[in-house]
Amino acid sequence: MAVVAQPHDAPDGHVINQTHAEVTRDVVATLGPPSRGYLLLLAGAVSLFLIGILTFLILLKDGLGHAGYNPPIFWSVYITTFVFWVGIGHAGTLISAILFLFRSPWRTAVYRSTEAMTVFAVMTAGLFPIIHIGRQWIFYWLLPYPNERYLWPNFKSPLIWDVFAISTYLTVSTTFLVFGLIPDVAAVRDKVSGWRKMIYSWSSVGWQGTDNQWRHYSRAYLYLAALATPLVLSVHSVVSWDFAVSIVPGWHGTIFAPYFVAGAIYSGIGMVLTLIIPLRRALKIEHMIHSYHFDNLAKLTLLTGSILLYAYAMEYFVAWYSGNTFEQTTFYRRAFGPMWWAGWTMIICNAFVSQLLWFRKIRTNLTSLFIISIFINIGMWFERYVIIVSSLSNDYIPWAWDQMNPTWADWGILLGSFGWFGMWFLLFAKTFPIVAIQEIKEMIPMPRKRGGHG
Amino acid sequence: MALLKRGKTAQPARRAPGVLGSFSHIDSAVDAIRALRAKGYRNLVVYSPAPNHEIEEALEHGVSPVRLLTLIGGLTGCTAGFAMTIWMSYDWPLVVGGKTIASIPPYVVIGFELTILMGALSTVAAVALFSVLMGKRGTPYDPRFSDDMIGIFVPTVPDQLGPIEQLLRSAGAMEVRHEPA
After folding, report:
1. Which helix (H) or strand (E) holds A323?
2. Whole-number pLDDT of residue B43
3. What pLDDT, in 10s, does the model give residues A372-386?
4. Which residues of A fall within a CB distance of 8 Å from B143?
5. Residue of B94, B132, B143 lying closest to A190 (CB–CB)
6. Is B56 within the bounds of a domain?
7. Among partner residues B9, B51, B63, which is closest to A2 by beta-carbon distance?
8. Between chains, do A175 and B52 touch, taking CB under 8 Å as contact?
9. Domain total in chain B
């Protein structure tokens, strides 16, 4: 956007060796007929999604008894996976909105795919509270709507804050994604023919790239980024308050909001890496997203991973320093109790694996980055599992302590969520430009008759 | 439906007469804009594949009024958030241990979320209003303007077509087209 300054000369000397026409050509080429690998991936995603649907239908018919709930643990895999997916979304908004405000030149090539990831991750996350409430067909009771008994939601409950935070986040990030797509869809419209032209013409809502359109668009994009920035920080804070506002040992911590936001961005970048590394090869855009972008993504992972390392250490320190026996017991049992394996998976995958990224060789090696990203995904799912399940499993009265084991109903929905997310992401990648055409063009100086490059 | 019609950019509903010049060099296009504006043609339409600050400066546009609607939307959302929570608390009071029925701190979350929601939606509505509904209609277009060319359309009367074409060509236009009414 040319609102304040044009990042023609990136401070780190990064140059894009492409002309405007080549950018359009290469991005439009990604929308061509799908390869066999793509179709296989899509078939895999749809199959997983069908497993999820089947599990959900059984839950609808029989109720939540199939899931592995065991008193006192009534929040387990569904809430864990809800927090996991909301977290995934955060990296997308960080890259598309926050780094836009900071004018980071490297975000342009990757931000569209991360923003799409945000929308689909939040779309996935939004399903989980609905699955979790048990009587799924009355989920609309969560919303404040006039009813014959004058009952309104209790706005002092963090659970209703969540309803507002998540639905706002979904709406605003979808708006941001669609808004950013309009000029790019217009560029595709002008390159294709037949029924595809008709569809892209309709979706580009009459975009012509006139000076008047760009003037309002650039301003609006800036404001959307400025609105999305505090939003993204608030959403995971609100999610963390679902736990922190309660008095369960292990949940009742003031560190929770920043700790969750850092974890969310960390997990999100992990997912970005998992998605982009194979995608750039499948769509033949290796020359647009390369080691320069991965190096920067890895640095961001290192930063947030280090914040997590600090947060984990601080949680243990505060538990010890508080002198509170319940808090101390909870944290002792996290490391040495019945769920020690989950506790150590979280600490090793998040706090320690991320420290490998201090080495430039690892940051720019895509194989190692991909493997690290898988560790991040696993580690961050376990982080939420540990926080939720291990804290609930032992509260104030040892007599009431118990454990739980996830069942097929938990795993079925978890797999289904990956299928649902993957399906939308793959469909998006073949339908819309996955690299932002106009923002890349904005970084390439237009040719000059009088020589030089802008 | 208006949006649908606008989508068919190759055949606009109503054509404005004038001259359309296509440029592949940014400095030539900016020269042409300055020369046209110096001659009193202020009603130009400039197409570009990406926003460009040189074009913006040459056209001397003011700040977009979108910000006003963002502000109004945000304030409306904030007011709505607090009004809704406070009113609903008193409409069916949940009295717990003599605590305040409508307590502001937890309602800040709802007020904040609705501020962002309404602010963002009204920003997009503002763009739709200013650039689609209130924008110029029926101006000629070329598919290359979304690729790598800059277009300048000068709406004018038939006897001025020649001099404007001359001006565009001397500034460095690659192509000049007369657009009949």
Report:
1. none
2. 87
3. 999 999 999 999 999
4. 190-191
5. B143
6. no
7. B51
8. no
9. 2
Q: How many CB atoms lie within 10 A of CB A14?
A: 14
Q: For residue B91, tell me if it sits in a domain.
A: yes
Query: Residue A96's Cα: distance from chain center in Å?
Result: 12
Domain holding B165: CATH number?
3.30.70.260
The answer on B124 and B71 residing in a single domain is yes
Chain A, 136 to 175: residues with Cβ < 8 Å from chain B are: 144, 150-156, 160-161, 164-165, 168, 171-172, 175
pLDDT (average), residues A61-71 = 92
Name the pLDDT band for A13 (thresholds 50, 70, 90): low
Query: Cβ of A176 and B120 within 8 Å?
Result: yes
Separation between Cα atoms, residue A372 and residue A367, nearest integer Å: 9
Residues from chain B contacting residue A441 (CB–CB below 8 Å): 49-50
> Does any CB of chain A come closer than 8 Å to the CB of residue B84?
yes
**Average confidence (pLDDT) over A76-104:** 93
pTM assigned to the model: 0.92
* Tens-place pLDDT, residues B129-178: 998 777 777 788 999 999 999 999 999 888 888 899 999 999 999 999 88
pLDDT of residue A1: 38
Burial of B13 (0-12, 13-18, 19+ CB in 10 A): exposed
pLDDT above 60 for A181: yes
Q: Say whether B50 and A189 touch across the interface (CB within 8 A).
A: no
The whole-angstrom distance between A137's CA and the closest CA on chain B is 24
Find the helix or strand (DSSP H, E) in which B151 lies. strand B150-155
Q: Where are the alpha helices (DSSP H) in chain B?
A: 2-7, 26-38, 53-59, 66-91, 104-127, 161-171
Do both B116 and B164 map to the same domain? no
Q: Where are the alpha helices (DSSP H) in A77-106?
A: 77-93, 99-101
Q: Which of A:396-425 have CB within 8 Å of B?
A: none
Coil, strand or helix at B177: strand
Domains of chain A and CATH, by start:
20-443 (1.20.1630.10)
Q: Do B45 and A154 touch (CB under 8 A)?
A: no
Q: Which of A5, A168, A220 sits opposite B123 (nearest CB)?
A: A220
Task: Please list every residue in chain A whose beta carbon sits closer than 8 Å to the beta carbon of residue B141.
Answer: 208
Residues B71 and B41 in one domain: no
In a domain, B72, yes or no: yes
For chain B positions 124-143, those within 8 Å of chain A (CB to CB) are 124, 126-128, 130-132, 135-136, 139, 141, 143
Same domain, B164 and B119: no
Q: What is the pLDDT of residues B87-115, one digit of tens each?
A: 999 998 888 888 899 999 999 999 999 99
**Amino acid occupying residue A379:** G
Structural domain contains residue B58:
no
Within 13 Å, how many C-alpha atoms sit on residue A9's CB side? 2
Mean pLDDT score, A137-160: 89
Residues B78 and B41 in one domain: no
Q: How buried is B65 (Cβ within 10 angstroms: 0-12 exposed, 13-18 middle, 19+ buried)? A: middle
Span A401-433, pLDDT tens digits: 999 999 999 999 999 999 999 999 999 999 999
Rounded to the nearest integer, the mean pLDDT of chain B is 87
The boundaries of the domain holding residue B21 are 15-49+147-181
Asked if A191's CB is within 8 angstroms of B27's CB, the reply is no
ipTM of the modeled complex = 0.91
Which among B24, B110, B135 has the least Cβ separation from residue A164? Answer: B110
Residues of A in Cβ contact (< 8 Å) with B123: 220, 223-224, 227
Alpha carbon distance B34, B57 (integer Å) = 10
